[in-house]
Amino acid sequence: MIKYHIDTIPVWDAYHQEDECPLCLLEYKCEKEYVDFFLSGSVMEPSTRIEVNKIGFCSNHFRLLYNEKNRLGLALITHTHFKETIENFKKLSKNLGAKQDSGNLATKLGSILPKRMGSPDTALDNFLSWLDQHHHSCMICDRLEKLLDRYAYTILHLWQKDQEFLKTISNSKGFCLHHFALMMRIASETLSNKTFNEWCEFIIPIQ
Questions:
Q1: What number is the average pLDDT over the span 2-10?
Q2: What is the 3-state secondary structure of the chain?
Q3: Residue 150 pLDDT > 90, yes or no?
Q4: What ranges do the domains of the chain cover?
């Protein structure tokens, strides 16, 4: 069930600004709120601190955090995040470089047998997987993605149920291409085939 006071009011506020893309406005507003949150005392709560230590921030959001000038707060969360990152790096990289010469019989047999956990190849796979995940992980990106998915769903709900909103979105400028793709994905995942076709017929001329 839609949480009207939590979800629909911000959507209405964004549309009332009559800007190019309502989801861009919502994303900017929520991004600023998340930056403020992660530099406030709330981030010292154990559950949040554990998440920050594990996931960290992308380069873009780390730069936004840095520009807020709360250097002490940022230093505290960065220190513990780096500490956990270094520990994981050491743990996952300790078995690297243990590969034997490819001419070794055991190595040749190992190449055609199922990999065992802890074998050199598996160690490398685990290490590379962790590096890739660590490089792309970001607390703020994750929260923004979930929130914008919810706002996209709210827009679709209002489009179906609220005649006043239907008029408002009819007179809007649609969405930027990035958020239009989001709207189409959420529509395809949540609407029936009939309603999805109606949505396409409605929104594409506006877009």
A1: 73
A2: CCCHHHHHHHHHHHHHCCCCCHHHHHHHHHHHHHHHHHCCHHHHCHHHHHHHHHHCCCHHHHHHHHHCCCHHHHHHHHHHHHHHHHHHHHHHHCCCCCCCCCCCHHHHHHHHCCCCCCCHHHHHHHHHHHHHHHHHCCHHHHHHHHHHHHHHHHHHHHHHHCHHHHHHHHCCCCCCHHHHHHHHHHHHHHCCHHHHHHHHHHHHHHC
A3: yes
A4: 4-67+139-206
